[in-house]
Amino acid sequence: MMDATTRDAVDELLQTYSETGGINYLDAAATLPSRLAIESACAELMSLMFPGFRSEALVSSEDLADTTRTRIRNLQARLKNEICRSLGRIPADQATDRRADDILRHFMSELPKVRKMLWTDIDAAYEGDPAAQSYEEIILAYPALEAIAIQRMAHELYLEELPLIPRIMTEWAHSRTGIDIHPGAKIGSHFFIDHGTGVVIGETTEIGSRVKLYHGVTLGARSFQKDEHGKIKKGGKRHPKVEDDVTIYPNSTVLGGETVIGARSTIGGNVFLVQSVPPDSLVYYEEKQLKVVPKRKHKPATTRDEFRE
Questions:
Q1: pTM here?
Q2: Rounded CA gap, 227 and 289, in Å?
Q3: Greatest CA span in the chain, whole angstroms?
Q4: Looking at the predicted structure, is the pLDDT value of residue 307 above 50?
Q5: What residues have CB less than 8 Å from 285, skipping those under 6 apart?
Q6: Running DSSP on this structure, what letter comes out for residue 31?
Q7: What is the spatial distance between Cα 220 and Cα 200, in angstroms, rounded to a whole number?
Q8: What sign results for the dihedral spanned by CA atoms 63, 66, 70, 75?
Q9: Per DSSP, which regions of 124-191 are E strands?
Q10: Which segments of the chain are extended strands (E)?
Q11: Would you list the domain boundaries of the chain?
């Protein structure tokens, strides 16, 4: 039995549910995509990209074709329902059903291209990290590859202007890897994030080919324009462009939609940058000269026995 205080709290809580507000979605809750279903789809997509590497039993070459077809069928069935939910129609009307089918066909047709792109990312990791001993190690153990793989797949759904699901996908990867890449970011081939923890890449970021980032790098927005009511305007180019063959070292921040990092440039560690730099630039803070000197030798502690002598 509830006491009076608890009953009052329940009544007040229920009253907030009936009030209008951005966090109330009771009547339309059935049309929201399931996070659990999307997260499960992400795991299945990773198995499609790297069969035999995602904890499932290794498949023989003879079984691979049938296994892949089964995975695709299961994914289509699972994602079709969630796409319809994301489009706001459950049960789906004819137009929603047709739109969901179109999105699914496009998405599935892009998976082979995504997988080929991911192999360039694996190459970049192997060539860019002296600690990498094999491609297998990168696929099994490098968190950046998982974050990049999910982002590349989510990006295809983002381009179809599908709400919610692309963000759920990249946030799943973010929670697992510590790498936050918005599904809207445009990323070229041979992309490598070394270590990766704390990397943030905003929605309108453009990244060229053969770009290497280290942990703690932020490619973010400099400021937000506001409308006449003081509210932030949505959309627009807010994040920087990073051209081909750029390296950005740990904990550096590059901000602004008009900021361009020219090709073949290197951004040193802990740099805060809100302006463009031309190609072939080296950007760093000039610090005081580092000194290394011997430590002062301390006299050994005197014991009481020495005083008695």
A1: 0.85
A2: 48
A3: 102
A4: no
A5: 268, 270, 271
A6: G
A7: 7
A8: positive
A9: 180-181, 186-187
A10: 180-181, 186-187, 192-194, 200-201, 206-207, 212-214, 218-220, 241-242, 247-248, 253-255, 260-261, 266-267, 272-273, 282-283
A11: 25-178, 185-309
Find residue 44's DSSP bridge partners: none
In CATH terms, the fold of domain 25-178 is: serine acetyltransferase, domain 1 (1.10.3130)
Separation of alpha carbons 234 and 227, rounded Å? 10
In the CATH scheme, what architecture does the domain 185-309 have?
A: 3 Solenoid (2.160)
- Cα separation of 245 and 59, whole Å? 37
The reply to whether 185-309 shares the fold of 25-178 is no
Secondary structure letter of residue 289 according to DSSP: P
Which one, of 144, 256, 254, 156, lies nearest residue 204 by Cα?
256
212-257 pLDDT tens trace: 999 999 999 997 777 777 777 778 899 999 999 999 999 999 999 9
Between CA 309 and CA 307 the distance in angstroms is 6
Q: How far is CA 280 from the centre of its chain?
A: 28
C-alpha distances in Å from residue 38, one per residue of 179, 217, 274: 18, 28, 36
- 217, 202 Cβ separation under 8 angstroms: no
Q: Are 190 and 121 in contact (CB under 8 A)?
A: yes
Collapse the DSSP code of 65 into the 3-class scheme (helix H, G, I; strand E, B; otherwise coil) and give the result: helix
Q: Are 293 and 276 in contact (CB under 8 A)?
A: no
Q: What is the DSSP string of 249-293?
A: -TT-EEE-TT-EE-TT-EE-TT-EE-S-B-TT-EE---PPPP---
Question: Which residues on neighbouring strands pair with residue 226, listed in sequence order?
Answer: 232
Least confident of 47-51, 127-131, 233-237, 264-268: 233-237
Which amino acid, 17? Y
- φ/ψ (deg, to 5) at 234: -85, 155
Residue 229 to residue 218: CA distance in whole angstroms = 29
